[in-house]
Write a structure and sequence with these properties.
Length: 293
């Protein structure tokens, strides 16, 4: 793909109203979730009972019949239901939420998941009427859910996509299986460099500076069962200056994280993420649908 693009921040969607704040702790019964399946070969679609094959630009995207009917209402695509996972202050969560309130993202944060009930991200969620779920169950958070109960809880909120925004726990395989190609994470380095277990926060930026790298920047990728190894969706380059401290580099990267996560959230909610036949996700330009990044 030769042409890069910037996603427009213009939107016709008005600010959203959020549900009443609450903290979820009781288990739900399991319910099925309508999912979007992307098949890289048409033969794969034969295994998905009740799904239709829709060939588009050499990529076969299989949607359930309910998706085909329900995703568009009165000529306007429905808002996507988003779950956001945080462990700390949640600045990227706040950036995406503010973009939603500003009408730039056709989605709604319907629930926040955290492993720290009193973290800044959870407090912000409650202040904005967003329900909070504690996960996982631990000695420090005995009211936290199990993996299966988390999947069931997200199903009750009819979650379409999950955005990790500084969530420091490994995502369980049960959740990855329930939301294939629907969980995204943002990492403060240019993956695959400086990623993996133990690489988070200031540790990443210290490692970048110590390596002598001249460039860094955020990466948004889909989540698999390992730390930071899922398919890369978007990256943005930030220079590493000669006398940078980890804190200075972190601040420069974070500014780009906030912008890029909001832009990617808009693309995801507008169904502009396309999967190439080789399994690489790319984003279709809103301004020029024939251009990709």
């Amino acid at each position: 793909m030769e042409t890069l693009f910037s996603i427009s921040s213009n939107s016709i969607f008005s600010p959203l109203q959020n549900p009443k704040a609450s903290t979820f702790s009781a288990p739900f019964s399991s319910e099925s979730k309508t999912q979007n399946w992307v098949c890289l070969k048409s033969s794969n679609c034969n295994d998905l009972k009740g799904f239709k094959g829709l060939k588009m630009m050499s990529v076969v995207k299989c949607l359930s019949s309910s998706d085909e009917v329900g995703s568009v209402e009165n000529g306007v695509k429905r808002k996507k239901n988003l779950a956001v996972f945080v462990s700390g202050g949640g600045s990227n969560f706040r950036a995406v939420h503010k973009a939603i309130l500003g009408g730039d993202v056709n989605g709604e944060v319907v629930v926040l998941v955290t492993n720290k009930n009193d973290c800044g991200g959870a407090q912000y969620a409650r202040e904005n009427g967003i329900p909070v779920i504690i996960f996982p169950n631990s000695k420090g958070e005995p009211e936290g859910l199990s993996s299966n109960n988390l999947v069931a809880a997200l199903s009750t909120y009819e979650v379409d996509f999950i955005f990790l925004a500084g969530y420091l726990k490994l995502i369980p395989s049960e959740l990855i299986r329930a939301y294939p190609n629907s969980i995204l994470n943002i990492h403060p380095s240019l993956l695959p460099a400086f990623g993996g277990k133990g690489y988070y926060g200031t540790k990443v930026h210290k490692a970048v500076i110590a390596s002598g790298a001249r460039y860094s920047g955020p990466t948004i990728h889909f989540v698999d069962e390992n730390y930071d190894t899922g398919r890369i969706l978007a990256q943005r380059v930030v220079p590493v200056l000669a006398n940078d401290t980890a804190e200075e580099l972190a601040a420069r990267v974070l500014r780009q994280e906030h912008k890029m996560y909001a832009e990617v959230a808009a693309a995801v909610c507008e169904e502009r993420v396309i999967w190439r036949e080789d399994g690489v996700p790319i984003i279709r330009s809103k301004a020029n649908p024939s251009h990709y990044s």
